[in-house]
Amino acid sequence: MTGAELFEKLKDVRISGGACAYTLEKCEAMVPLINAINALKKQKNAVILAHSYVSPEILYGVADYSGDSYGLAKDATRTSADIIVFAAVRFMAETAKILNPEKQVLIPGTDTGCTLADAVTGADVRRLRKEFPDHSFVCYINTTADVKAECDVCVTSSNVYDIVEAIPNEKIFFLPDKLMGKNLQEEMIRRGVRKEIEIYDGVCYVHEQYDPEMVQFMRLKFPGVKVLSHPECSPGVLHASDYVGSTSQMLDYVRKSKDDRFVMLTECGLSSRLMVEFPEKQIVGSCTMCKYMKSNTLEGILRVLIKARPQDVAELSEDVRLRAKRCIDAMFEYTEGKASALRGVELVEPS
Ligand code: 13P
Ligand code: SF4
């Protein structure tokens, strides 16, 4: 790849709707790293999985697969590579390791926590299980392997409503996202599904920042704009939105929509992806960054491919891995063959 080729891909990425985030010089400086990574990938039979929130030079320079947490978990099961480099956060790399014990899974980010995954431990779930013995424990994929090992089924933002609806037990304990839990309670009422849902107290520090007044302001400033939000936002924000879905579902909505102006109430990486892939559409408003996702860099990816340190490698005890795998396999069983599970929630028909 040349600097000019990279710049051609990234030239439409703008910072808060203003200046271009990339210059030809910046792209030329990145290309030696990109070419070194792509050569090492071939030499070592490695693939790079990247979440849509990481920087565009990773997504469009070196990534082999990109998507939301459900799509990447599935991609991790499809590759025949010996090494998976997971440019995202630690819980996503752990999920890949749970599904691929024979592969080496590398974590190039330098701060790969997540305020949701860090909110609850396996010991917390064991304590709650004693308190709520009749409940089915449903965990968001944004949890550690230790937590998944203690739960019955895992869900992602793309399938949470359909899976909880399908669970035969009326009593559900959902963790750790409080806001997604409230949205889940409301959606079950909206669907007429009888569920008693207890919720935990975690939040995503990126998505909790949005409020309905902000949405009203954007609608006044940009008449006709379509507002898309992630189910980690508050119920008030979801009510004020035109569409709610996982990051890949939002991307798909924009791809199919005849509208040309969108506000994305999620992490900046998704807005950048839309600017690259749909330059004819306008992404308005400023976005919010996740410091954990943005701790992934080209330098970090090259470093782990050359020589990974113990902290760069996803490792799990076999006992935890097998118990956590049951929880993820239960999600795949609920989801597979149900196209509806991958649908977002459309609040207003796209015109
Ligand atoms: P998605 O599965 O929708 O990509 O969400 C992952 C995430 O961390 C959102 O903050
Ligand atoms: Fe976690 Fe929020 Fe960052 Fe997603 S955006 S990885 S939920 S902290």
Structure at a glance:
With 351 residues, the chain is α/β, with parallel strands linked by helices.
Q: What does this protein structure show overall?
A:
By secondary structure, this protein is an alpha/beta fold. The chain is built from 15 helices and 13 strands. It has a five-stranded mixed beta sheet with strand order 12-11-9-10-13, with helices on both faces. Strands 2-1-3-4 form a four-stranded parallel beta sheet, with helices on both faces. The radius of gyration is 20 Å and the shape is globular. The chain starts with a helix and ends in a 5-residue tail after the last strand. Mean pLDDT is 94; it is low at 339-344. Bound molecules: 1,3-dihydroxyacetonephosphate and iron/sulfur cluster (SF4). Residues 89, 114-116, 142, 204-206, 232, 267, 290, 292-293 line the site of iron/sulfur cluster.
Helix content: 40-55%
Distinct ligand kinds: 1,3-dihydroxyacetonephosphate, iron/sulfur cluster
Count every beta strand, where a strand is a DSSP E run of 2 or more residues. Answer: 13
Strand content: 5-15%
Mean pLDDT: 94
Give the oligomeric state.
single chain
Please name the defining characteristics of this protein.
351 residues, alpha/beta, five-stranded mixed beta sheet, four-stranded parallel beta sheet, 13 strands, binds 1,3-dihydroxyacetonephosphate, binds iron/sulfur cluster
